[in-house]
Amino acid sequence: MAEDSRRGWEEDERVPGAPHQNFVIMEALAEKLKILNCDQDLLEKHNMKPLSRHYFVSNPYLAANPGEQFYVFTVMAAWLINSAGRSFTKPREDDEPAATVANILAELRALGVRVDFPPSKLKSGSGEHVCFVLNMLAEHALRRRGFSFQKPNYPTESTEEESLIDDHAEPVLDNVDRVAEEDEDDEENLVDLEALTLQSTRQEATPSKPGEILSSALDVAEWNLEVERVLPLLKVTIRTDNKDWRIHVEQMHRHQGAIKSSLREAKGYLDKLEEDISRTMEKVSSREKYLNKQLEGVIGEYRATQAQLSEVKERYRGASGGVAQRTQLLAELSEELEKVKQEMEERGSSMSDGAALVKIKQSVSKLKQEIMSTDVRAGVVAHMLLHAKLKRKSDMSFRMHAAA
After folding, report:
1. How far is it, in rounded angstroms, from Cα 148 to Cα 56?
2. Which residues of 30-70 form beta strands (DSSP E)?
């Protein structure tokens, strides 16, 4: 039942009562939690404070604590799932919110409830979807306990009492303005309408003897005198109650008349404004046509000039591209020329300077000294080699003589 009402509400979110639907669902949830004895079985065991009737409603005018609301929502959802006959572990404050919400929605689907919203809608701990989930779980928990809501039986009122009330109400409503303008000093002498109604009802309820003829023993003149004496005291008033539906109906009629009168005045002003706007639009359109005819030649010249300008821009782009390439080539050639000039300057400075010749002479003298030392070393090595050969020959001849 709650799912059908929620589905119908979602199909037409533009109805005037749509923003207050969350309050209705939350109040229904509060009544179901009272029946399930949530305060003693859940809140007192977990040391939680009692919840207000609009605790899970997301509204900018209500104080909200998302962390606390989400924890209370998960604990209450786990308790309702267990009450509905399913096994569900109590969540902790340090659990992952996404995993907890996914488990709650999985249990809700297992109970046969269609879930057509993402789990992220429940992470705030309040709002339409939180109220819907808790409401559906509470319904299944009540169904598990065998409880169901019955349709209310309204008592039927008797037609005699209605006619009696109407007979007393007609003259009272006609004289309300007159009674309100009189002095307040006569309030002690006023007659209570409800007492008269109950007295007349009791008199009508008393059974009379069948076939008895009613007759009066009073004198007519005395009766008239008594009526003239009591008539000024028979003033009937109705104490206005803001909850009376008649007052709201009268207010609705007054507001309807005021709206109709304002609508007639506003309609005249709006019709006049519409005529002025239509005339102004016609003038603007005719002026626009006249200007188009007068400026047709100028517009043609402007279009031709625009075409020529686009062609010139295209040629400029092509020429600017060639200039850029040539500029880059010129920069490269200039860099090479600078390098050649630098080399020429270095060579010229080296040719005109005598430091190089001095360095060459020093190098030649150094080479000569090295050649002389090399020759001395070569002579020493040749002498040592000759001495070794001679020694070898003497050794060989000695061995030969010894062998002979």
Report:
1. 24
2. none
**CA 75/CA 81 separation, integer angstroms:** 10
Distances (CA, A) of 156 to 159, 160, 161, 167, 243: 9, 12, 11, 19, 22
Return the ∠ at Cα 279 (arms to 275 and 281), rounded to 5°.
115
Say if residue 235 is exposed, middle or buried (CB neighbours under 10 Å; 0-12, 13-18, 19+): middle
pLDDT in tens, 367-402: 999 999 999 999 899 999 998 999 888 888 888 888
Q: How far apart are CA 18 and CA 387, in angstroms?
A: 128
Contact, 77 vs 129, CB < 8 A? no
Predicted confidence (pLDDT) per residue in 71-89, tens digit: 888 888 888 888 888 888 8
* Number of DSSP helices (H) and strands (E) in the chain, helices first: 13, 0
Q: Is 79 exposed, middle or buried (CB count within 10 Å of its CB: 0-12, 13-18, 19+)? A: buried
Q: Which residue is associated with the tokens 């002389």? A: 372
Q: Which of 13-17, 71-75, 280-284 has the highest mean pLDDT?
A: 280-284
Instruction: Please tell me the pTM assigned to this model.
Output: 0.38
